[in-house]
Please model this.
Amino acid sequence: MRLVTAIHCVAVDLGASSGRVIVGSWSRDQLALNEVHRFPNQFHSLGDNDYWDVPSLWSEVRSGLLKARHGFSRLASVGVDTWGVDYALVDIAGRLVFPVHAYRDPRTKAGLRRLAARGLGAVYEETGVANVFYNTSLQLEETLRTFPAIKRLADRCLFLPDYFNFRLSGRMVNELSIASTSQLLDVSGTGWSAAALRRFGVPRRWLSPPVKAGTLLGPVLDPLGMRNIQVVAAPGHDTACAYDAMVASPDGSDIYVSAGTWSLVGYESEVPLLGRKALKAGISNERTGYGRYRPLINVVGLWLLEGLLTDFAVRPRRRSDWNALITAAEGRAAPQALLDVDDPAFANPDSMREAIDAHLRNRGCRPPSDLAAYLRLICDSLGRGHAAAVDVLERLSGRTFKRILIVGGGAKNRLLCQATANASNRPVVALTIEGAAVGNLAAQLIALGAVGDLASFRENYGRQVPQRVYRPCHGG
Ligand code: LFR
Model:
């Protein structure tokens, strides 16, 4: 259908470091984006634990929706995506019965050690998801062990996008892509894994059979004053949305990097990538909102830079400030040694600068002298981390990846894109778009019947999306 009058949809895209509300207007097979609201996000530490400020997030979602309604007289729908794995435990009325922990909370480390002692292979065979300390599986296990009464108090486990969908529509559902980040979904179907639920002690009644992206959840609830807006279950996982925005070659020869707080390096497939080698390489077989597989590797990502900016007490705001910092970093000498981006010391340190300095000193290297030199070190190290992930995915899948497509904040960082091209010896195509929001909007447009399917969305969107190609260059 070639719409002439525009259809306006709202994407609520919540990231671990920032959130945004974007109106997408689709007409004549073109998507125009309008960011109406953006806000910082972070978790808060209290004692030994880390928590999300859910009421504030909800208040930002509402502010964004009000701004969207103010700017656009007819909004057709809204969809929500967030980072993976985190969840809210609620009673039957949707009231929070437990604080919402942030995934970097170290509370699950003992659980991961216990799991490792029993052998990590079984849970990987069941779920296809790599064993990392922040998986929902281990988080729920820790809560149930520490507070057994929670079993009675909670009626439902809603992943964060599910929870915001519930606040908007009153419907409690678990969406497939976000469910697939939990390490509780059966890798061979689209339902929950009975073995994994048993293993982690998670009550079956807390979860409902996952719905696919595009499910209509009903109109926005009355108190929000937007009754004519449909709530659509977008792919709830931001990475699934970002992958949907990849205007990839249909022959499957592209590999993706969604470069934000994390760098998620992966591809789409009809089949999961399993086995001992995949387990060892830390490959997670997450799902698209439509049921396909996204075998991917989590690389630490621009979280390294986030932490450093906090340590240096600077935060470039405008594009020009970022450009100045990147130009300074480009002028720095190549680092003596690169960071091993798999070092768990970078997961949630008190000071990222100290963690990086200690990591370098342990290897007999001097730490960088200023922020620009740290940025150079981070980009070169992430470039090598991306390349290593691409190589292992290529080797284990038996595919050939000719190009790397990058979306997210990292796509705007030319130093990172060039370092990735150089280290991987492949062209890097940077799509300087809000990838997650675009994939979220695509799901809404498909659900509303304005676009046939994801393939036709990508084909149309590919003609308009700004792309910059970085070619490998080893000239120093
Ligand atoms: C990226 C992301 C990753 C997930 C991590 C933790 O925002 O969603 O895909 O592994 O956050 O949830």
Remarks:
- DSSP finds 17 helices and 17 strands in the chain.
- The longest strand covers residues 30-40.
